[in-house]
Amino acid sequence: MTLAFFRRHRKWFMLLMFAALISMVFFGSWSYMGKLSEWFGLGEARVVVGTIDGRKVREGEIREFGFLMRMAGEASQAFGVFLERQATTPDQKRQLYGYTMGMTAWPLLGPTAKGERPDRQTVLTWLALHDEAVRYGFGTAAAEAEARLEALEELGLSGQVLDQFMSQRPGMQRALLVKAFCKDMTVRAYLNWLSEAFSGAVDPELRREFTRMDERIKVRMAVLKAEDALADVKDVPEEALQAQFEKYKKFLAGGGPEGYGYRIPDKVAVEYLVADPGAFEAEAAPKVADADIRAYYDARKDPEYLVQEPKPEAAPAEKKDAAKEEKKDEAAGGAKGEPGKEGPPAAEKPQTPAAEAKTEAAAEPKAALAAPAAPAKKFRPFEEVRDEIRKTLLRREASILAREKLNTNVAEIRPMKPAPQLGIWADGKQVRHVVVPGVHTAEDLAKLDGLGKAMHGEEALAAYAVSVVGLVSAEKAKIGLQEISDACIGPDGEAYAFRVTRIEPNHEPAGLKEVHDKVLADVKQANAFGLVRERGQRLIEAASAKGLEAAANEAKIKTVETDLFPRERIIPYGPRWLSFPASLPGVGASQAVVADCFRMVAEKRQRTLVTLAERQVVVVAELMERKAPREAAYSRIRLLLARKVGQELADNALRAVIDMGAIRRRMVVVAEEPSGEVRSPRTQADPDPESEE
After folding, report:
1. What is the mean pLDDT of residues 430-451?
2. What b/e readout covers 398-419, taking b as 16+ CB neighbours within 10 angstroms?
3. Which of 262, 396, 512, 692 is deepest in the core (most CB within 10 A)?
4. Long-range pairs for 390-397: beta carbons < 8 A, 24 or more residues apart
5. C-alpha span between 399 and 393 (Å, rounded)
6. DSSP labels for 368-398?
């Protein structure tokens, strides 16, 4: 009966078996392809890796955003470098900066990345800053990014250069570059607004800045140097040298406690090709036209060829007037009270930035009427400097040819396995082959003529040469053993391409004998510094009873009186001011000594002792005179101070706003470590424009 039932319904049973078989095949394929897609990053892109203000952020979004930000920054840098030679006038240079580095946030965000590629949490924080910018209305439309590219093309960016840039980056297309610019320009516009929003300066900040600038003191100083006490150091016993060696033999120089270290540093053997521009001048001569020489002169005649007229010496009456003006300033400062206190005087009210601008605008015509007409500038005649300019341009074009020649050789050598003999590419005239005998540290290489002064970008060739696989980790290595380097440029335009042929990793010395002279010099220097500190302490104790001059004379120590000096010297530099500590006799520009001398004024002390351990110097200073800030001087430079202080306030506020920790706190950025999914070989956030979101 059962068999008859199956025979009667065999058609349905066949359909059921066929459906089960299809289901098994489909399920197996889905499981395999699902794991495979996760392995290649397709499934991984959907994994939630964090939240921004409650919004879920997936791995694909992180990869794409990091990739776009990096590409926008690299494009801005590359286009700026390419167009730099074509921007000859100041207006063109301003436009070039505005459309390249002036529109990218990469200089501010790039340094926050760890290593070559940023990690996931860093990119997540960048994305949070971008979301914040969009929320406040700073989103950049694609039309603005296209307009930026068009402006760059008008400045000379050819389609060939643009295509070359995109071809060197897999997956990069013009539409993707526009999208990258939109993200990057959004963040930069927001940062620019933040900088402007916090640039308003208030009077207390101006007063404090002016006090730092104009308050001056005079001190008497005794400078005790360890090197001057070396002759007083007695013979060092061998036991002390051995103890010093054993304590610091595991550390590289400067890496151990107190800066000592006797480990033998990394050493490399190198050979190199060098292309000398002098051998390319005949080939470069046709490229230097008379029109180029004239254009160079017109663009640079002020100030490069400006004739400096000798300044007429001031008449005695003018000198007297200047002295009277100085006395008036000081009298005005004393009559109006201590200007160092916070708050404006009764006769002066704080001004808003707008009011300050109006005041400055109103003052400009008056100053123009009062000031005498400036004498006409005189320049060296074009005919006089023609040959000088021709040599300059010829050297520049020859340097370009030398670099191109060497880069061509490097491109041929690099793919060849095993490493070929470099001498094959040297003709002895335009390109020479040099083998540096022995193994050398970076310090030794830096002392070599020519090669030692060459630079690889902003890095010295010597430091670049010792960053070899085998001496450092593979991730940090910049060049491999037997691998030809990129072109490094010397101070005179010569181009070098080197190869490390042998390495000797850093190691402990075999014994004290190998570094005996270094250990002995360090121990003597330390003992001499100890003697100097003891003498400085005895000197300041004696000075408290009889004064520094008398105490120093008794101890046969020289003293010197300084001029009146401020806390810092300030020089206007474009829209900003550069500041650096005042230079004092015997110690130079030392922030520690200057700050301690002014601390005597604040704490109403008479003497101070400063120990400069890095310089091995002890300074004993005695306060002699103080001059308070001048009120009349404050009135004259108040508007300039407002710009300087306002910029500093804006910079401080901007640093606080873009601080990685601050962004995470205010945007509630939470990074989550994905768990349970199949990981691809990429362990860091490797931005991928083709990943799914």
Report:
1. 91
2. bbbbbbebbeebbeebeeeeee
3. 262
4. 390/288, 390/293, 392/296, 393/288, 393/292, 393/293, 393/296, 394/281, 394/284, 394/285, 394/288, 395/277, 395/281, 395/493, 396/493, 397/284, 397/287, 397/288
5. 10
6. HHHSPPPPPP-B--HHHHHHHHHHHHHHHHH
Which pLDDT score is estimated for 609? Answer: 92
Structure tokens at 51: 């939240």
The dihedrals phi and psi of 381, each to the nearest 5 degrees, come to: -60, 150
Residue 223 bridge partners (DSSP): 619
The single residue listed with the structure tokens 């979301």 is 131
Calculated CA dihedral for residues 384, 385, 390, 392, nearest 10 degrees: 150
| Cα-based distances in Å from 83 to 164, 399, 401, 446 | 15, 18, 18, 32
Query: Could you tell me if 655 and 627 are in contact, meaning their C-beta atoms sit under 8 angstroms apart?
Result: no
What angle do the packed helices 174-197 and 142-154 form, to 10 degrees? Answer: 100
User: 167-186 as b/e, with b when 16 or more CB fall inside 10 Å?
Assistant: eebeebeeebbbbbbbbbbb
pTM for this structure?
0.53
* Helix (DSSP H) and strand (DSSP E) numbers for the chain: 23, 17
Half-sphere exposure of 138 (CA within 13 A, CB side): 18
pLDDT at 650: 76
Q: Specify the amino acid at residue 103.
A: M
- Residue 400's alpha-carbon distances to 88, 160, 397, 411, in angstroms, are 18, 20, 5, 16
The amino acid at residue 508 is E
Hey, what are 222's tokens?
């005794």
pLDDT average, residue stretch 644-653: 76
**Which tokens is 292 given?**
């180029």
- State the amino acid at position 527 in one-letter form: N
Sequence spans of domains, the chain:
46-199, 216-260+514-627, 267-288+385-504
- Supply φ then ψ for residue 47, to 5 degrees: -75, 135
Cis amide leading into 310 (omega within 30): no
- Total residues belonging to the chain: 693
Q: pLDDT exceeding 70 applies to what percent of the chain?
A: 80
